[in-house]
Structures are given as C-alpha cells and as structure tokens.
Design a protein that fits this description.
The complex is a heterodimer of chains A (441) and B (242). Chain A has 441 residues and is mainly α. Chain A contains 16 helices and six strands. Chain A has two domains: 276 residues, no CATH class; 122 residues, abc type-2 transporter like domain (abc type-2 transporter like fold). Chain A has a four-stranded mixed sheet with strand order 2-1-3-4, with helices on both faces. In chain A, helix 8 packs antiparallel against helix 12. The two termini of chain A are 54 Å apart. Chain B has a six-stranded mixed sheet, with helices on both faces. A four-stranded antiparallel sheet of chain B has the order 2-1-4-5, with helices on one face. Chain B is globular, with a radius of gyration of 18 Å. Chain B starts with a strand and ends with a helix. Classes of the chains: A mainly alpha (441), B alpha/beta (242). The structure holds adenosine-5'-diphosphate and magnesium ion.
C-alpha cells in the first residue's frame, strides 16, 4: 500500500496545476463576490436614488384642495422630487413625463378631500412607466408606494384622533395580534415556524444540496479529466506496467479527485459566503431582526455523522463513474462532453427528494431514488432535526456503501489494459477512417 | 533460464492476426531487437511481455515467470517504455522521476540515488526542473528512457525509443541504451523500424513481418547470410520487394 502515497501525490499535483482544473476552482471565489458587489452596488444606488431624492414624480392634481396640497408637501419632504403637471387629462399628463425625465405619475382624483373627510375613502391612481428591467426600476416604484402608504397612515392617525381624541390609533387599526412559538423536541422557541423553517431550509434545504451537487459534479468531472488525460498522454499504459495493483491506481485516482473536489467545494463555499456577506446589509434593511436571535437546537452528533458518511459514499460513487467515463474517453474533450450526460440524471432523483415528496412519485422512480447512493445525503439532510435516523437511511447507508464498493470493483475490472487498449484502438481507427473520408472528399 | 522465452505466440484482435505463431528466446544481458514495418506486430509483442495484453495462444515467460499467471511478479522485474509514452504534463521531470522512484523503491535512500542517476542519464540538465509540458518530444523520450533504467529492471522493454526524434536526441538515447545495459548487465528487448539503429545497438535481431518471424540472428550473421551490406537490404531480400 506504500505506492498509494506517491500515486495520490501525482494525482493531486498534476490536477491542481492543470489550468482546466484550477481555473474552475478559482472562478467561484472571484466571480461570486464580484456579482455580490455589483448587485449590492446597484441596489444601494437605486435605493439611494429612490429614497434620498432624485426620483422625479409627476402629479396631476384634479382636486386642488388643502388635503391634496398637503400630500404634495409630504411627498416632497420624503425626498421625492414632486412636480405638478398643469394639464387636464391623464393622457396629456403621461406625455409630460417624457419631457421631464420622469417615470411615475400620481393622479389625485376630483373629490379627494371631501371623500376622505366624509370617511368614504379615496383612491390615488399611480402610473408607472416601465423603461427597462432592472433593480433600479423596481425600487423606485416601491419607494413611491411606501410614501403613499406612509401618508395614508398619517391620514388615518388624524381621522382616528379627531373621532376619539387620546386614543392609540395603532390599536384601532390592528386590535388583534399574535405571538408564535415553535416546538421542536419538547423545546419551545419563541420564534414563528416560518423563521425556524427558513433557517432550517437555508441550512439543510439549500446548503447541503448545493454542496452535494457541486462536490459530486466536480469530483466526477475531475476524475474523468484525470483519467482521460492519462489516455491522452499515453501515461495509463506506463502506469499499468508499474509494480502496483489496479486497486491502488483506482483508489489513488478516487482519493486524488476527492481531495481536489473538496478543495474546490471549500472554494465555492467561500465564494458563496463572500457573496452573502456582501449582500447581507441589504437583508437587514428589509428587516427580519428576530431571525437568528434564538438558537435552533443542534442536530444530534449521530445525524451529523450519518450526513458526512453518506456524503462521502456519494462522492466515491460519482468519482468511480468519472473514472469509468474518463477511461472510456480517448481525450479530455470526449470525457467532458460525456460526463454531464452521466452525472446530471443521477442528481435529479436527489433533488426530487429535497423539493418534492418521494412517496408520491411513481413506483419506478421511487425505486430509482432509493437505488442511488447520492440520494441518501438528501434524505438525511431533509430529516436533520429529527432525533433518529429515518428508516430509509438506516438501511440506505450500508446499502449505498455496498453499491459503491461494487462499482469500484467493476471499475477496477475495466482498468484491464486488454479492454482499454482494444477500446482505444477502436476509437483511434474510427477517427482515422473519418479523417480519411474527409480528406478524400 | 532465458530472460525472455516466447513459445508459439498468437494474438488475435477479432479477425486480425497481430502475432501469428512467434517463438524466440533472449539471453540474459542481451540487447534484442524486433524490426519490421508498421503493423508487423512489434508493439503487440512488447505489450504482451509487459503484461498489458493477454496472448490468444502460446506462452511468454520473463526470467521463468509467466506473463499471464504471474503478471504481478513480472511487473516487479520489468520496466516498459510505451510507444509515444508521455509524462504528466504539469509535473516537472524531476518530480516525475521522484514519484516513479518512490513506487519502484521502498527505501528513501535507494530512491534518492536512483533519481540522481536518472537525472544524470536523462541529460536534461537544469531543464529537468521545468514542467513536462514545456519539453520537446525528444526531451520527453529521454525522461522516459531515464525512468526505465532508473528502475534497475532485469528486463527493459522499449517500444520504438527513438521514433520521430532528431539525430541528437536519438543518439543520446542509443548511447544510453548501449552503455547502461553493458554496465548493469540489463537485458533489453526493443522494437524499431530504423534498421540502422538496430544494427548499432542490438546483439541480436528478429525480423518480423505480418505477425511472423522471417529471420533471426546477429546483425553480422544476417548480413553474411543474405549477402547484404546492411539490415535494410537484408529485410528487402527476406520479405521481397514491395
Ligand atoms: N488494440 C488493438 N485492437 C485491435 N487491433 C490492434 C490493436 N493493436 C494493434 N492492432 C492491430 O494489430 C496489428 C499489429 O499492430 P502493432 O503490434 O501495433 O504493429 P507494429 O507495432 O509493428 O506497428 C495491426 O494490424 C494493428 O492494426
Ligand atoms: Mg508499434
């Protein structure tokens, strides 16, 4: 087994220095924060321009009363740049927008003041002209809506106080409130279930599947590339005549690819972390301060162990598939185009588990879901807050370990040079024949 | 005991007869050449010896070990240079030799000595620390030949070690094969379709055509027997003009 160390060293060194690999590793770390920066900059600037002034709003005041005037003044104090259009119809007013570089028209109807004071209620018509699709547009529109809501609240305060002075208008508006608690494992958490679910979903419903997906695809891709390169550079032939066993060659490939893929996953998680960090201040603005203040009960160590174990088995499973694809490809290009077709169908059942209900699937699909080792990390992740492993996982982990071992064994069978050389010869002669045909034409 | 003992070897690829009943023996310490045109079956022969392919019929033994039933024992005493073999592109030649040395030798001391020797033999100088992907074809081949002899094999199997190389690189490799084998009493079986090269390096040669052996002997014997001034002429006389 001592040959394993130099073999793994060779895999890791050769892979990490391959631009096809290390560019793939670095990209998420660079791209995701850049996307984060761009998005937060765009959103910030549009919010600033919406709240801190600069947004021009046209108003067609058909009422011309004390109340409509006070609305105009109020809007101006919130930072909107309000200007009145002196025309008679909405159509004409909309035409005015263009000349004034504005996108929003507020129409104050006739009888605005009298309907409000007689408690009939009135309606403002807001016209939003859409000129492009982007965050900026969206937030200007919601800024205007916010101003209107705010004014409506002020009006309601005035009305309520005038009807019954000294009363708290808020209680009149919402006389009934609720406080929600969530109960998990006999523990009472003072937070609503949506928030708990949100945290759980973020943790196990998004992070685990994303990690599983990135690792599995990356590891398969890396293993396939590494093996196809051996074919391309004719190094496999040398490797197979060294005083090492086929199993050592295969295990070294699996370990080497896994090490690189885990590194790659850490990199992309770092990328995601930076991305969320950069966007985080925004989430605070949109306000969900109660979230994260109460700690969720931690899953049991057994659950973590089961999750890691099933993830590891899933990784070995997809690596073996990658080695098979790579061994059958005479160069990297072929292996790259094949690997997606092999791995993506295998990932689909795993996603059905997370985002659907397996038991409602047709029986054949259910069987497929339970047959694949990549499904079990999802099954466990979905049930992470339970204190006991779900039954499927209890049987599923040993089962998928068996399937993976079988696949590794099959793969090592395939590494018989007799078969590989025959296969390569076929690919080579077919290609030469094709080239011959082309050059004849 | 012969270093290589081939008895009635047949290899079929579907309906293609790559080897058609070949028998020959190589003595320990000999440099034995297989020559013949493209498609003659040289690579197939050497791959069977290197335990990569299984014979359809007949037997092949390396120092008394059967290449089929004792393949892993055979792999411990051979070193094989594949036709057009490459190395790992992103490793330096030096790193490559180190990794191979760690596989061939159990002790670090032995491995270090082997690497030093191989670096010397490759003649790559300081370039040995550059990445393999920056090497020319000739430099890659020199690295590979150095790797083969570094392993201190009892039998070195070289498939067209100088094919496609310019005179300088080819010459370096030829001299390496000649000198190293004489110094260490290593047995070599090599293929080539350069008959002049074979005449220079090999103690004995076998002429192969269409999977059959058509003549065997030392270059001198063959030339006298066929009244030819070089092996190329011998070959043309044996096989007949194309
Ligand atoms: N892996 C293979 N599968 C099928 N046919 C092969 C394979 N390798 C070689 N052959 C065929 O066997 C014959 C001998 O080839 P080879 O041993 O490579 O000859 P040489 O090395 O002398 O040029 C050729 O006809 C070749 O096409
Ligand atoms: Mg050949």
């Amino acid at each position: 087994m001592s040959s394993l160390i130099p073999l793994v060293e060779k895999e890791v060194k050769d892979l990490l220095r391959d631009p096809r690999i290390y560019i793939g590793l670095i990209v998420p770390v660079v791209i995701l924060p850049i996307i984060g920066f761009t998005m937060s900059a765009a959103t910030h600037s549009s919010i600033e321009s919406a709240v801190g002034g600069g947004v021009k709003v046209a108003v067609l005041d058909l009422d011309k009363t004390q109340t409509s005037l006070s609305f105009l003044k109020f809007a101006n104090t919130t930072g909107l740049k309000v200007f009145e259009v002196k025309v008679d119809t909405v159509k004409e007013a909309l035409k005015e927008l263009k000349g004034n570089d504005a996108k929003i028209l507020i129409v104050i109807p006739k009888g605005f003041e009298s309907k409000i004071s007689s408690l009939e209620g009135s309606t403002l018509a807001l016209y939003f002209e859409v000129k492009s699709v982007g965050f900026g547009e969206m937030s200007t529109f919601s800024a205007v809506n916010r101003v209107v809501k705010l004014y409506s609240k002020t009006l309601s305060d005035t009305i309520i106080s005038s009807i019954k002075p000294g009363i708290n208008p808020t209680i009149v508006r919402t006389p009934l409130n609720t406080t929600s608690y969530t109960v998990i494992h006999d523990r009472i958490l003072s937070m609503p279930p949506e928030a708990v679910f949100g945290q759980l979903f973020m943790g196990y419903g998004i992070i685990v599947p994303v990690v599983l997906m990135i690792v599995s695809i990356m590891v398969a891709q890396i293993a396939a590339t590494a093996t196809a390169v051996e074919n391309e550079e004719k190094t496999l032939e040398t490797l197979l005549t060294l005083p090492v066993s086929r199993y050592e060659i295969l295990i070294a490939k699996v370990i080497g690819s896994t090490v690189v893929a885990v590194l790659g996953t850490l990199f992309s998680m770092l990328g995601f972390a930076l991305y969320f960090r950069i966007l985080f201040p925004l989430q605070e603005i949109s306000g969900s301060a109660h979230l994260g203040t109460t700690a969720l009960p931690a899953p049991t160590p057994q659950m973590y162990l089961a999750l890691c174990l099933s993830l590891l088995i899933a990784i070995f499973f997809t690596t073996s598939l990658g080695v098979i694809v790579g061994a059958l490809s005479s160069d990297v290009r072929i292996s790259n185009s094949l690997i997606g077709a092999v791995i993506i169908p295998i990932m689909i059942p795993a996603f059905l588990i997370m985002y659907g209900d397996v038991r409602s699937l047709p029986l054949a699909l259910q069987a497929l879901v339970y047959a694949l080792p990549v499904s079990y990390p999802m099954i466990i992740a979905k049930n992470m807050i339970l204190s006991e492993l779900p039954v499927e996982a209890v049987y599923g982990i040993p089962y998928s370990a068996g399937v993976t071992l079988l696949l590794l064994l099959l793969t090592s069978r395939l590494l018989v040079p007799e078969k590989l050389l025959l296969l390569q010869h076929k690919i080579l002669t077919r290609r030469m024949r094709r080239k011959g045909e082309v050059s004849e034409k | 005991m012969f270093a290589v003992d081939i008895q009635n070897l047949v290899k079929l690829f579907g309906s293609v007869k790559a080897l058609d009943g070949i028998s020959f023996q190589v003595e320990e310490g000999e440099v034995y050449g297989l020559i013949g045109p493209n498609g003659a079956g040289k690579t197939t022969m050497l791959r069977i010896l290197a335990t990569l392919l299984l014979p359809t019929k007949g037997s092949a033994k390396v120092f008394g070990l059967d290449v089929v039933s004792q393949a892993s024992e055979v792999r411990r005493i051979i070193a094989y240079l594949a036709e057009e073999a490459g190395a790992y592109r992103n490793l330096s030649g030096y790193e490559y030799l180190w990794i191979m040395a760690k596989i061939y030798f159990k002790s670090r001391q032995e491995a270090r000595e082997a690497v030093d020797l191989a670096v010397e033999a490759s003649g790559l100088g300081e370039r040995v620390h550059d990445k393999v992907k920056t090497y020319s074809k000739g430099m890659k081949r020199r690295l590979q030949v150095a790797r083969v002899f570094m392993a201190k094999p009892r039998l070195a199997i070289l498939d067209e070690p100088t094919a496609g190389l310019d005179v300088i690189h080819a010459n370096h490799i030829r001299r390496l094969v000649r000198d190293y084998t004489k110094e260490h009493n290593t047995t070599v079986i090599m293929s080539s379709h350069n008959m002049l090269e074979v005449e220079y390096i090999c103690d004995r040669v076998a002429l192969i055509d269409k999977g059959k052996m058509v003549a065997e002997g030392s270059p001198k014997e063959l030339k006298t027997m066929w009244e030819a001034s070089n092996l190329e002429e011998v070959f043309v006389k044996v096989v007949g003009v194309e």
